[in-house]
Amino acid sequence: MVRPLALALLAPAVAASVSNIHISQLGTTIAINLPPNNNDINFYMTAPTYYSWVAMGFGSQMANSLMLIAYPASDGKHVTVSPRLGTGDTEPQFDSNYHVRLNGNSTVYGSYIVASGTCVNCRSWAGGYLNSNTNSQPMMYALGPSTSSHIASNDQGVTIQKHTAYGRFLLSTIQATGYGGTGALTSIDNQVNTGTQPVNTYGANSPNGVIVGDSDSLGLAHGITMAVAALVLAPIDVILGGGRLLSSFPLIHAVCSLLYLLLLIAGLGTGIKASAEYVATQQFATAHQVLGFITFFVALLLLGLGIALHVGRALSSSGERGVVGLAHKWGIRFLWLLMLIDGGLGLQLAEASIGLIIGYIVFAGATFLAVVFVLACLWCIGSRRSRSRDGVRSAGIVDGGGVFRKSVNSRKTSGDSEPVIIPDNRHAR
Questions:
Q1: Which of 12-26, 49-63, 202-216, 400-414 has the lowest mean pLDDT?
Q2: Are residues 282 and 237 in the same domain?
Q3: Distance from CA of residue 342 to its chain's centroid?
Q4: CA neighbours closer than 13 Å in the CB half-sphere of residue 320
Q5: Considering the chain, what percentage of its residues have pLDDT values greater than 70?
Q6: Which of 178, 212, 246 corresponds to the end of one domain?
Q7: How much is the mean pLDDT over the chain?
Q8: Is residue 412 part of a domain?
Q9: Domain extent at residue 172
Q10: Of the four, 43, 130, 305, 426, which is 20 to 30 A from 53 by CA?
Q11: How far apart are CA 79 and CA 115, in angstroms?
């Protein structure tokens, strides 16, 4: 990738003790300088603004590592750098015990973000330390997703989305030790790499040591599964379960309900696994998660009511729905409403774009109105047929078996006139 000349002009080229690496595939450069006789780390990071954030980490894995994460400040021109500690396979958390001092070269310049400064007293942290006398200090880098809303914040504790690219490499802290400070780091774009190229520690999936396209697959699977359940199967199930004219097809309703439940189970499973990857969701206390559990338990309750309803119909000759039938019918509609609301809360929790959220609201609203219209039509048609049957039944005689008949023993004719139907009186003489 061609590096802009302006980056090299941010500061004069100064020979200094620098250890750096440039990942050409990602257009990203990382460098450090370790001033002698103190525990500070001078750092330099630059990456395309195509990525929402750029990070460098000290260590070979996120757990027990110190990471410096850079992203644009709220004005879109300056840069915020957040020192964070990694605790495992979740996003690292800001730690106010570590202080970052930025220099004037830290800026959003054209299509690149440049972060340069000093992490004060950062060579040791809870769970780890930087080896100042080695040619193979384990390091990490990561880049935030480009598809989500880009961060523009002065808050060092702002929530970040899962990285879309990452890798590991080695730096020589011996080479990096010496005077020069942060001013020397901004000239490293014109220097040959002094660090080891990305280390292939991820197996066959990273032949060049770089992982690209590492999206939140669990979260995406959860979202797609629940979207299909809420916007496709749920409306069909509501119509099949609530339409009087469709009650003669219980098998179709049962199959649809089974698929519906399987999707809910799959969505619950992927949602629980995805929640473990983020600190904010590990306690399962967000509105989306709480409503999701409620929705699932309501679905199980409706499943029980549906089984009881069908068993009751099989054992009863009347076929009446009764209280259980009404509870099942309105419960299905209530469940669908919960799912539509929870889908919106899920998009908000995932910090989806405004366009995606608006699109979901419009599509969900249109689907809801369409189902209401279909149910209203079915109700009108069913009521009309019911009134028609009641009118025919009231004009005749219903025998003990419920079969309509007219008396054939009471017909008298007079000439060519129509037969007159008179009440059946078996005792008449």
A1: 400-414
A2: yes
A3: 11
A4: 3
A5: 72
A6: 212
A7: 78
A8: no
A9: 5-212
A10: 130
A11: 7
* Same domain assignment for residues 226 and 188: no
Closest by alpha carbon to 329, among 229, 253, 231?
Answer: 253
Residue 48 has a pLDDT of 93
Tokens of 330: 């309105």
Residue labelled with tokens 């730690």 = 95
* CB neighbour list of residue 38: distance below 8 Å, 6 or more residues apart: 121
Contact 424, 409 (CB under 8 A): yes
What the block records as the tokens of 61 is 């894995």
Both 140 and 261 in one domain: the answer is no
Question: Cα separation of 337 and 293, whole Å?
Answer: 14
The C-alpha angle 378, 382, 385, rounded to 5 degrees, equals 145
Among 169, 191, 212, the domain boundary falls at: 212
Which pairing describes strands 112-120 and 99-102: parallel, antiparallel, or unpaired?
Answer: antiparallel
Domain shared by 245 and 116, yes or no: no
End-to-end CA distance of the chain: 113
Same domain, yes or no, for 351 and 373? Answer: yes
Q: What confidence tens digit (pLDDT) does each residue in 339-370 have?
A: 999 999 999 888 777 888 999 999 999 999 99
Cα gap 156→67, rounded to integer Å: 12
| 409 within a domain of the structure (yes/no) | no
* Residue 2, both tokens: 């061609």
Q: Of 332, 312, 314, which Cα lies nearest the Cα of 322?
A: 312
With beta carbons less than 8 A apart as the criterion, state whether 115 and 56 touch: no
Residues 208 and 231 placed together within one structural domain of the fold: no
Return the pLDDT at 208: 53
Identify whether residues 156 and 284 lie together within a single domain. no
- How far apart are the C-alpha atoms of 70 and 53, rounded to whole Å? 6
